[in-house]
Structure formats: C-alpha cells, structure tokens
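Sequence, please.
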C-alpha cells in the first residue's frame, strides 16, 4: 500500500511583499514637522511603498491514499470546482478524502494581484519514494483583484504524477512556494 499526500505547509507559504524600503530612504531633517507626501518615496522609510501583502494557506492539497497497480505509472487530478479525485494509469484509490488547496490573500483593497506557482514540485518520503506535482490550476480569473476589504480567497490544485520511483511508497510530502505580488 502506498499513501500519497501532497502537503502545503502554511508556515512555508507565508510571503510578505514588498521587502524593506531601500536603504537610501532615510529620515529627512524636516520629517518631524513637514513629512513628505505619500506616494513619491523619500523621507521616512515606507513612504511610497505599498503595504505588505499576506498569503495564508487555509487548506492543503491532499490526494488521499493510493496503491500502485503494475508499474505504478499514473497521475491523479483533483477537480478545482468539485474536489473530485480522478485517477489515470496504474494506480488505484484506497480512499481518504481528496482536498483541493484553499488560500486567502490580504492587502490593499481593490488592488490587482499576481499569483504564481512553480512548474514542478518533487514530493518525497524519507524512505526514498518520490512523485511530481505539476500543472497547477486555480479558480482565479484572468485579472484577480482584492475585494473592497482587501481580501481574495481562491482554490488551487495540481496533478500528481507517479512513476517507478514511487515503488518505495510512503507518505509523500512537498512544499509549494506560491508567490503573490501586486500587479
């Protein structure tokens, strides 16, 4: 029996953008009485910098339990809308709840954002089993934007690809670095 689980660790998914203001933006001599205007930079650190954007993972991708049949080459998909698990190839379902990932972005109200996923994440078990998580999809539209309260919730998933390297089996895990920025 091989148990395949794709895990997104929320601690690894927290990304704060932008970085600290440039070192050249020190405090000016007149800031106490005449602060510079917002938006142009200069003067106090933080002027002209957009507020941070925060990504929180609400639930992790989980493919449930699978068993290899024959050579074990196959793939598993989780439908982004329904959460239904589809198995293709030489794998069989042993149950377990399939779950698509859910995330929340918080930032500046009504700001457009860009959400980027990696091309490939290798899922590993300490005993040596491996599989690949690829082909990430989300339910975000083409131009995602935070709502009037500065929040955007979305679902995401990927396709788990297995091959002969999974023969060692185990509890496969991996971290998916999701990058979020203002567009």
């Amino acid at each position: 029996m091989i148990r395949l689980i794709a895990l997104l660790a929320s601690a690894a998914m927290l990304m704060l953008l932008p970085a600290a203001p440039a070192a050249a933006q020190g405090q000016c001599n007149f800031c106490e009485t005449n602060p510079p205007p917002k938006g142009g930079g200069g003067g106090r650190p933080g002027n002209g910098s957009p507020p941070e954007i925060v990504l929180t993972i609400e639930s992790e991708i989980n493919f449930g339990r699978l068993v290899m049949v024959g050579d074990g080459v196959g793939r598993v998909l989780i439908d982004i809308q329904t959460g239904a698990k589809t198995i293709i190839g030489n794998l069989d379902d042993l149950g377990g709840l399939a779950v698509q990932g859910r995330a929340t972005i918080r930032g500046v109200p009504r700001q457009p954002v860009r959400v980027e996923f990696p091309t490939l994440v290798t899922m590993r078990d300490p005993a040596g089993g491996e599989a690949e998580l690829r082909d990430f999809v989300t339910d975000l539209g083409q131009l995602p934007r935070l709502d009037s309260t500065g929040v955007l919730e979305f679902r995401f998933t990927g396709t788990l690809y297995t091959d002969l390297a999974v023969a060692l089996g185990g509890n496969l895990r991996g971290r998916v670095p999701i990058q979020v920025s203002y567009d």
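Residues 1-44 have pLDDT under 50 and may be disordered.
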